[in-house]
Specification:
7-stranded mixed β-sheet; globular; Rossmann fold; single chain; about 160 residues; 7 strands; alpha/beta; 4 helices
Length: about 160
């Protein structure tokens, strides 16, 4: 399975943390990131995402909708396990459900520090992926979704979204 962990785009202040919207720059960054992500996947023969799970908070929903617009074959679904107060083991259960459905590539859109914790959970190590700034992403592969069974394929950060390993 391929798993892409994507932090929401840059957000502005809002009436509550749950209701923060993406800035115009945040929307632009995610749109550009989608083009770079598509090219990076194609270059590595990674299938496009078929599933996009996101935190139900506004900025992650908006980010996921932009990604879904670039990958129209992907289904889009809110996932409570991706809310900021969650942990990587709760996310692992949601990923297990996707694995059982034989989904080859899923995107998770969530918040910091959870996005970093998810990457560290699957990689089994810290600091292999730089801290995901707003809009940043990393893509992992694994045979089974279990702790320390992932392999880092690439990561990319705004504004250039140049792929790194």
């Amino acid at each position: 399975m391929i798993l892409t962990i994507w932090r929401h785009g840059q957000a502005k202040m809002g009436p509550s943390d749950r209701q923060r919207q993406l800035t115009e720059s945040g929307c632009d960054d995610i749109g550009f990131a989608c083009r770079q992500f598509h090219a990076a996947c194609r270059a590595r023969r990674i299938p496009p995402p078929g599933t996009i799970l996101h935190s139900p908070w506004l900025r992650t929903t908006q980010t996921a909708e932009i990604i879904a617009g670039a990958f129209t074959q992907a289904s889009l679904q809110a996932e409570d396990a991706l809310q900021p107060e969650s942990d990587a083991s709760a996310v692992d259960i949601a990923i297990g459900n996707l694995t059982a459905q034989k989904r080859p590539h899923a995107v998770l859109v969530s918040h910091q520090p959870l996005v970093s914790h998810i990457a560290e959970f699957y990689l089994g190590t810290k600091k292999q992926v730089p801290a995901l700034t707003p809009g940043g992403l990393c893509t992992l592969s694994f045979e089974v979704n279990a702790q320390a069974c992932g392999v880092l394929e690439f990561w990319a950060l705004p504004p250039e979204y140049e792929v790194g390993i």
